[in-house]
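pasting for ref
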Amino acid sequence: MSNLHAISANSQSVWSDQISRAMLESGELRRLIDEDAITGVTSNPSIFANSITKSTDYDEAIAQLAEAGATTVAIYTELVKRDIQDACDVLLPTWAASEKRDGHVSVEVSPLLAHDTQGTIADARSWWDRVDRQNLLIKVPATEAGLPAIEQLISEGISVNVTLIFSLDRYRAVAEAFIAGLERLIAAGEDPSAVASVASFFVSRFDSEVDARLEALGTEEAMELRGMGAVANAQAAYGAFLEIFEGERWEGLAAGGAQLQRPLWASTSTKNPDYDDLLYVEPLIVEHTVNTMPLPTVDAYRDHGNPAPTPFGDEEMATAQATLEALAGVGVDYDDVVQVLEDEGVEKFAVAYRELLTSIGGQAAG
């Protein structure tokens, strides 16, 4: 038994925040499932850019598609589709065994559509039809434009991974969009039990932004808060989750077969080398959540993660609220932090996507 089984024993799922042709063909994904309790996979444009441009694993497929006259976007789409479909097939038994709670693979809509509601809906529908797997999740950013897209897609029975969440207020809006979509789906006479969703709260990037502001302030009080904001923000989000998914409205949906929209902790690798490499894993273990980890973080927990972790609870959530208040007290503007992080996140994925297309286009032409 790997140390990672101790996380799943606390009803938190561990997903791989990495996918590649090599992981699929070598059997590494299968091994992670069998030996390390990995029960899902997430992807994004940056992950695919890394997989495709830093290996030769896709060269033959790119050459064949280019020879057949495929455009650069069509080549990208076909490469991603194949990896996502194959990962879905590997994880299908997990999906079935978990009664559709786990075993999902995420693919992201074009990051160029982050502020285009109708474009996001259309692209999400295309990916849903193209991949054609029951255990697929379509990643939609939690921008203002993304919120109505989330509701619409859920109402159509399309499972959604809501990505790039930084703000507690935005998280509440995401949950509302999910619930409203389910209500529409059920009102149309459809079965909600196969519709899955996670709300991906980005963790480590919060500390990167907040710590820089604390260091700029430079006071003793500010410096003592470094490395504390991200975990506090996530734990506070879980408190909001507990409030949202209780009461008559949600219980009625659950009675009809609706699944919870679980919080997912994303961006959980430690960016600051001075911090513990499991800073965004061990303090965030709690039931009804997912932690999606890049492979080095999976390796770290397997090697020295707590084999008997204690989930956080009311005391930690109260401390989290106090930490966020303390950040405001020393002069950190929470609303500005989360807006900067959302804007940067959208831009980073767009840059990675454009660079990947440029790389594929150059290789196809060569």
